[in-house]
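#onboarding

Welcome to the new folks! Below is a worked example of what a typical request in this channel looks like: someone posts a single protein sequence, and someone else replies with the predicted structure as tokens. Don't worry about understanding the tokens yet, we'll cover that in week two.

Example request:
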Amino acid sequence: MSISTKYDPAEVEGKIYQEWLEKGFFHSTPNPDKEPYTILIPPPNVTGLLHMGHMLNNTIQDILIRKARMEGKEACWIPGTDHASIATEAKVVGMLREQGIKKSDLTREEFLSHAWKWKEKYGGIILNQLQRLGASCDWDRTFFTLDEKNSDAVEDVFISYFKKGLVYRDYKMVNWDPTAQTNISNEEVIYRDTDAALYYVKYAIKGSDEFVTIATTRPETILGDTAICINPNDERYTHLKGKQAIVPLVNRIIPIIEDDYVDIEFGTGCLKVTPAHDTNDYDLGQKHDLETIDILNDDGTLNEAAQFYIGESRESARKLISKQLKELGSLIKTENLRHKVGFSERNPDTAIEPKLSLQWFVDMQKLVTPALENVMNDNIQFFPDKFKNTYKHWLENIKDWPISRQLWWGQQIPAYYYGETGVAVGKTKEEALDMARKDSGDENLSLNDLKQDEDVVDTWFSSALLPISVFDGFRNPNNEEYKYYYPTQVLVTGWDIIFFWVARMIISGYEFGMDKPFEKVYFTGMVRDLQRRKMSKQLGNSPDALGLLDQYGADGVRVGMLLSSAAGNDLLFDEKLCEQGRNFSNKIWNAFRLIKSWEVTNIEQDPAAAVAASWFENRFNETLEEINDLFSKFRLSEALMATYKLVWDDFCSWYLEMIKPGYQQPTDQTTVDQAIGFIEQLMRVLHPFMPFITEEIWKNIKSRGENDYLIVSEWPVVNSFNKKELQLTNEVFEIISNIRNVRNSSGISPKTALQLFVKSNESLPFEHYEVVIKKLANIDSIATTLEKIENSSSFIIRRNEFFVPLGEHASAEDQKEDAIKEIGRLKGFITGIDKKLSNDRFVNNAPEKVIEMERKKKADAEAKIAILEAQL
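Example response:
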């Protein structure tokens, strides 16, 4: 079987992925003889393209699902996309605008027809891109959050909530996105420090020459003022109690009210009250029965109630009104200010407008108890568990969730209105009519008397139901798939949507599902640049994800991202890591080619190769046990690093050196068979991380059966291993490394054979490994000695002193200089350990095993110093 000299991901990856698809290896069906292992993808927006966050999140999911598949579990990774109401509607509106079509000129049905066409054209792009990454999803199960079963689920849940009194409709102050022209939830508001101006404006007191000064960052809202508020304990304004003020420009007479909400120490101590445009002002308005004047249109422009600057944007009106106030003498001064302003998550350049609006809300306080209890008691486990506190804080302070959105793209709210105040719900208009007749007692009501709510539900409302709805658990709760796959095993997601999605799925699971929606949640960090900035198109710091795949291959990118991605911690992305991943691919390929290139003849096995096989078998099982443990704790970056070292350091650097035949010399069949066996085991362990190159090597190892693919091979089982032998081997490797260092520092060629003496009066524990030391360090003989060897270079390992005679290669002065340098290095090493051991935080939090190891390192270093000082 010919093996190409160079591994080319571009030639291999697409071909192998197609083979996996054709063989149906990703597809899952309920199997009572297997343990299910199910992952539900955090559905990317249907508008989206692959970015670095997707790459990290989906690589982790693929690693988990591939390992579970190899472990013999019924692995089921369910892909899909989110309809993303706000983002998608904005895309469609923009597309129509380019065609000269306004949304306002279309009926709902006409607009949705355009939206579905857009979705069919662009909606599958990101899923195709995930295939480039190697994602082994069950593509036959691909869902869309607007598909029939998910939309049915949304209607079922809304109706259930309504009948239980858990959803209600009310006028409340909400967060309004003037660009999308819809209400959004608190969690979709992103607060940013923003430069602004603070305007000091004077309001005349009616019937006097006096005035009070108000400080505001939004002078345009003056047009909606309906009161001035002072603190009743503020002696500066006691004389104003019961009086009235005059709003500049509009000359509206407004009361001066008292409330201890006003901070005497803040600003001027006088507060303008605009109930329609500030949440706290609205609460004051309700408390003091103030008039509410909404001066803004839904798009953020001023309306007729403002009386001035009608049709101007908020920003434009702010400039115009401040200029006019200055001309009137009402603007005393302005000051520069930096303060937090809320912006829309979906439209990052749009400042949120507090707006009084009639919306549907979910009464969250009545739903959160089981969701809180089952995370805090670890019935649902968080990795890392530090996020339990974040989750707890949010649920204990949860606000009612505004779920209606003033959009057309989404699930239309199944509520119907009749008469002046009647509301009925139903999956059809006929069902709603039955409820309306029953509730009103009016049998004469007809379908024509009912009008469905125009709004849709929040996208997160539908995605909160996915663990149940993807298995059709709402429409058919007794179906085989729902009973087999639910609850799912793991959710992999970013911590930034712990409230948007994770908490709401848990709430839905306990309210509507048979149980919790998932057993474990693994939180990934954010992908940031080396300056710790979140990657974004605006900053231009986000690399082209597909370009990285083209340049480094999927395996290289997967390794590169994971190498610095500890659970829950942000990943500081450096493209050099992908280059490191690609180099790792090349290292593996070249090691495989090397073994395959050896000439095999009927000769006895080299003793060093026999020792190597015994050692690597031990080392492999030790590392496999560590890898399994790291997987169980979701420390995947560490699991990859352990695998990386096993392949690069242990296999390629040590094992292959031990078994490699001499130049142009043949080797034996036993050694080759052992090496190939180890390659197979390594490819199994490496496969979840690097699926493509491992599958390609698996195919090239030997001729295989039609369905003998690595992806469905068995995960290795940990066999017993000898820890003492492994410790001893580590010492042997140190001996070899030190001898090589002696050669380098003394300018002795690797081809020159040397001798090795060990200061000891007893047999050496590493006698079994002499063949390895001789082969790898080019040593002629190894002997014990009771005296120091003259004109030699020495080193110390585990309190044993070793001598390499240098002959004419080095003088006593050279040895003295080396010893002084080594003593200095060891003293610095001890200082570092002392700092650790004197750090209370380290000592109190580190495992006892780690602390003991540090103390042992210090003792060993002190022993080496003592020997070196004696030599001097």
